[in-house]
Amino acid sequence: MTTADDLIALVRTYNPNSNQQLLRDAFAFGAEMHEGQFRHSGEPYFTHPVAVAGILAEQQMDDATLVTALLHDTIEDTKASYVEVEKRFSREIAELVDGVTKLTNLQLTSTQTKQAENFRKLFMATSRDLRVTLVKLADRLHNMRTIKSMRPEKQAQKARETMDIFAPLAGRMGMQWMREELEDLSFRVLNPEGRNSIIRRFITLQRETGDVIQKITADMRVEMEKASITAEVIGRAKKPYSIWRKMQEKEQGFSRLADIYGFRVIVATEADCYRVLGAIHQRWRAVPGRFKDYISQPKSNGYRSIHTTVSGRDGKQVEVQIRTREMHEVAETGVAAHWSYKNGERVENRFAVDPVQWISSLTDRLDEDQDHEEFLEAVKLEMYQDQVFCFTPKGDVIKLPRGATPIDFAYAIHTRIGSACVGAKVDGLRVPLWTRLKNGQSVEVITAEGQTPQATWIDIAVTGRAKTAIRRSLREEDRGRFVRLGKELARVAFENAGKKSTDKALKTAAKALAIDGVEELLAMLGSAEITGRKVVTAIYPELEHTQGEEIEQGRAVVGLSPDQVQQRGACCQPVPGERILGITFRGQGVVVHSIDCAALADYEEQPERWIDLRWQDGKHGAVNTVTFDATIANDSGVLGRICTLIGEQDANISDLTFIDRKPDYFRLTIDVDLRDAEHLHRVQTALEAESNVSTITRRKDPGLATLGAETPRREG
C-alpha cells in the first residue's frame, strides 16, 4: 500500500509548501478508523481512500481535497463523527467529507423518479463546493478499476450507473481523460465481447499496416520543422468504447469507420495554433464538415482547441487537435485546473472556467416544483450534448446543444420570447421551426402577441429548458380540461369498486399518493399520469386483488333477466365505466347503449322498451371494440409508431381500414379492443399526444344503430 511518505512525496512535486503534518495526521486518523475493515478483494479497506487521494494528487489538488479523500468514508463507515473531524482538522474539511458522504448515500440507480430527485440533490451539492464532486469522481474511478472483486450483478449495476451519470459528469467538468477511462471500464463490464472485438480488430490492423500512429506522428513532425514551428506531437488510438459508440451511431463496420486515430499538436501560442492548421491542410486534404474552432468559440467548460480531420497516410482519416500548453492543461484536467500549483503557489489558468456557473444556472432556472423526470431530462441534455454557437441580430452569442432548433434559440433568450415564437429567420432567410442550427448562424426570432406553445414543439425542441417551458405551458392550458376528465374518471373508478368518489375520499387518496391536493390528483388522472384503479386502491388496498379477477363477458352487464341476451350497440360502442341503458327487441334480446347515444331518440315514444342497466363491478376483459377515426401524417414510420403506442397501453388493434390517402396525410379507422372507460381514455390520450396524429376521435354514428346485421324492428 502507498504510505504517507509516498503520498507526501507526490504532493511535494507540485506543491513544496504543502502542509505535510496535516496530511500525516489525516493518513493516521483514516488508518485508525478503518482498522479491521476489508474490501471485497480482501485488501485492507484503507487502501481505497489512499488510492483516491493519489488520483487527486496526480491532478495537483490542494491539501483540503486530499485530506477529504483520505477521510471520505470515515463519517459513513466508521465511528468517526462530523464533530470529531471538524475538531481534529477543520470545518472546511468536515463539510467536504460530509458532502461526499451525502453524495454516496443518494443511491442514483433507484427508480426513475427517485433518480431524478437525487440528480437534483447531486447538482445542488456540487454547486456549493465542486471539490465534493471531484472526490466522488476519483472514488468512483478507483472502484471501477477494482470492480472485478464484486459480484457480477453488482458490477453491472455500478457500470451502468457510471456510464449514465459519472462518466458524462466527468466530461462536463472538462476531465476528458477520466470520462474516457470510466466509459472504457464500464464497457469492459457491460459488453466484454464488444470491447474485445474492437481490440482484436486493432491488433489485426496493426499487423497489416504496421504502426500507423508512429508513421503519421513522424510525418507531422516533419511538416512542423518545415514551417519552423516548435511543437509537441502526440498520437494515439481512440478508446474501444469511443470506437464502439461511433460504429453504433453511424451504423458502420470497423473497416469503414473514419478517424479511429487521434493526434494532438501542442504549441506555445494561439498564433502558432493557426500556423499548424495551415501547415497540416497544405500537406493533407481536409475532410469537409469536420473542422471546429473551439479557440474562437470555447465550450462552456473552458475547453479550447482546433479540431480538423484530414486524409492522412494511405488515405486513412485522422483527427488532429491543435492547442497551446495552457489549453491542453484545461483540456486534460478540466475543473481541477483551478487548483493547479507551481512552486507551492496557486496558478490561475486564464482559460479555465468554473463549471459551478453552469451548475448554478441550471439549478436556478429550474423551478423547485418542476416535474422530476423533466429535471432529469434537462440535466442529461445539458451534460451530453456538444454545443453550437449562434448569434442574435445584435451580435450576442447564444450557446446551444448540437441539433438545436430556432425554438431552443428563442427559449434560450427568454421564456417569454420562446412562448410567443411564430417563426424564425436564419441568416436572413425564413426557415421552418424544426431547422437544425449550425455554428456561426445568425438567428432572428419572429414573435406574435397571443401566441402560445404548441404540443408539436415538444418533438422539435432539443434543450431541457425549452421542453420544460413548453410542457409547463401546455399543462396550464389543459389543466381545466384534465381536471374535469379526472373527476369523471374518478367517479367511474370508485363506482366500479362499489364506492363513492367523495371529496374526503379524494383528499385521502391524494395524501396516500403524496400528491399536492385533490385538484392536482384529478389533473394527473385526467392526463393519464395515474390510473383510476391506483387512486381507488390507495385508500382501499384490499380491492387490489379482487379487481384482478376478470369478469366473464356474459356477466358484464347487470339488470338483465336470465333469458335475455345483450349486445353492445354499434352506434355508440359503450364500454364498462360509462352509464348505460338497454333497448329490447322482440326475439333478439337487448341492445346496450351509452346514456348519451343519439340513436336513443328513435325510441323516445316507446318507454316500455327501455331497461335500466349498469356494468358489473370489477375488472373487465379487453373485449370491447371501440372504433377511432384518425388523420395521420403520410410519413415513414408514423403508422408503426401509432401501433406501438396502442400496444404500450396494453390494447390490441382488431382492424384497421384506410379511408383516404393523400400525399401529406392518411384518413383511417382503427378498431381497438379495450377493457373500460379508463383504458379508452389512456389510449386516446396517448394518441392525441403523438405529434404526427392530426386528429383522433371516437366514432359515434347513430346510423349504425343495428342489432347484429339487421335493422332493429320497432315493437307495437
What are its keywords?
716 residues, alpha+beta, 28 helices
Number of helices: 28
Point out poorly predicted stretches. 365-369, 707-716
Helical percent range? 40-55%
The pLDDT mean sits at 80
Shape descriptor reads: globular
Largest sheet: 6 strands, mixed
Distance between the termini: 101 Å
Overall radius of gyration: 33 Å
Strand content: 15-25%
Structural class: alpha+beta
Quaternary? single chain
- Please provide the count of β strands: 24
Quick recap:
This protein is an alpha+beta fold.
Structural summary, described in words:
The protein is α+β, with helices and mostly antiparallel strands and 716 residues long. It contains 28 helices and 24 strands. Residues 365-369 and 707-716 have low confidence and may be disordered.
Q: What is the topology?
A:
Layout: H1 4-12, H2 20-33, H3 47-58, H4 63-71, H5 74-77, H6 82-88, H7 91-104, H8 112-128, H9 130-145, H10 152-172, H11 176-190, H12 192-209, H13 212-226, E1 232-237, H14 240-250, E2 261-267, H15 270-283, E3 285-286, E4 292-293, E5 306-311, E6 317-324, H16 325-333, E7 341-342, E8 345-346, H17 356-365, H18 372-384, E9 387-391, E10 397-401, H19 406-413, H20 415-419, E11 421-426, E12 429-431, E13 443-447, H21 457-460, H22 464-496, H23 503-512, H24 518-526, H25 532-539, H26 543-546, E14 550-551, E15 557-558, E16 566-568, E17 580-585, E18 589-594, E19 610-615, E20 619-620, E21 624-633, H27 638-648, E22 652-661, E23 665-674, H28 677-689, E24 693-698
Parallel strand pairs: 2-6, 14-20, 16-18
Antiparallel strand pairs: 1-2, 3-5, 4-5, 5-6, 7-8, 9-10, 11-12, 11-13, 15-19, 17-18, 17-19, 21-23, 21-24, 22-23
Helix pairs in contact: 2-4, 3-4, 3-9, 4-7, 4-9, 6-7, 7-9, 8-9, 8-17, 8-18, 9-11, 10-11, 11-12, 12-14, 18-22, 22-24, 22-25, 23-25
